[in-house]
Amino acid sequence: MSGVGVLDKAVLILEACTKGASLAELVHETGLPRATAHRLAQALEAHAILQRDHEGRWRPGVKLGELAGASADILLASAEPVLNVLRDQTGESAQLYRRRADERVCVLAAERASGLRDTVPVGSVLPMTAGSGAQILLAWEPPEAILPLLPKCRFSSKALAEVRRRGFAQSVGEREAGVASVSAPIRDKTGRVVAAISVSGPIERMGRRPGDRLGMAVLRAGQRLSGL
């Protein structure tokens, strides 16, 4: 503890909301009085450090993701040459995604120079409910963080178990008709998944089982960027 009372209490609230928490759960997890927990959670929500999900539970907000992203420059700097190599190895466009609440954001991309390609501009916001990148960003999350999203997803809990087993994800026409993709995790030093690295392109070129041909290349690229 820092000895700064309100700051220490706010940190307790943030830690309790990592996987989502109702007011009752905040009170239980932090030991704070109900009125105090509610006031601090609302204040953090006003600054977008926390946000409510569709069940009214507090979860980490977009501002927290922006702050975390600002400290992740080392990953972005390291990822650019790796994405370029992956694009050249596979012949497909390559992307790096980070999760932002119930969305994922393309933070880096390396596009094919010519020919039919799947273009995902940097800054594009895509759903967490479809695509191999979304599967990666959800697969290693705790069940209580996955279950609220699953009814909206175009993949199942069984598919996520298969992702964990083989280490990479593939999708065919899941996010967008005619587009296939393969993704793998990027982990921090603790082993937590912090980003997804992907290749994507037309189904007619990538095939109906793109992971068979491209899975290991994408997986190795993710491993090269893990632990930074």
Automatic annotation (TrEMBL):
<keyword id="KW-0805">Transcription regulation</keyword>
<dbReference type="Pfam" id="PF09339">
    <property type="entry name" value="HTH_IclR"/>
</dbReference>
<dbReference type="InterPro" id="IPR029016">
    <property type="entry name" value="GAF-like_dom_sf"/>
</dbReference>
<feature type="domain" description="IclR-ED">
    <location>
        <begin position="63"/>
        <end position="228"/>
    </location>
</feature>
<dbReference type="InterPro" id="IPR014757">
    <property type="entry name" value="Tscrpt_reg_IclR_C"/>
</dbReference>
<protein>
    <submittedName>
        <fullName>IclR family transcriptional regulator</fullName>
    </submittedName>
</protein>
<dbReference type="Pfam" id="PF01614">
    <property type="entry name" value="IclR_C"/>
</dbReference>
<dbReference type="InterPro" id="IPR050707">
    <property type="entry name" value="HTH_MetabolicPath_Reg"/>
</dbReference>
<dbReference type="InterPro" id="IPR005471">
    <property type="entry name" value="Tscrpt_reg_IclR_N"/>
</dbReference>
<feature type="domain" description="HTH iclR-type">
    <location>
        <begin position="4"/>
        <end position="62"/>
    </location>
</feature>
<keyword id="KW-0238">DNA-binding</keyword>
<dbReference type="InterPro" id="IPR036388">
    <property type="entry name" value="WH-like_DNA-bd_sf"/>
</dbReference>
<keyword id="KW-0804">Transcription</keyword>
<dbReference type="InterPro" id="IPR036390">
    <property type="entry name" value="WH_DNA-bd_sf"/>
</dbReference>
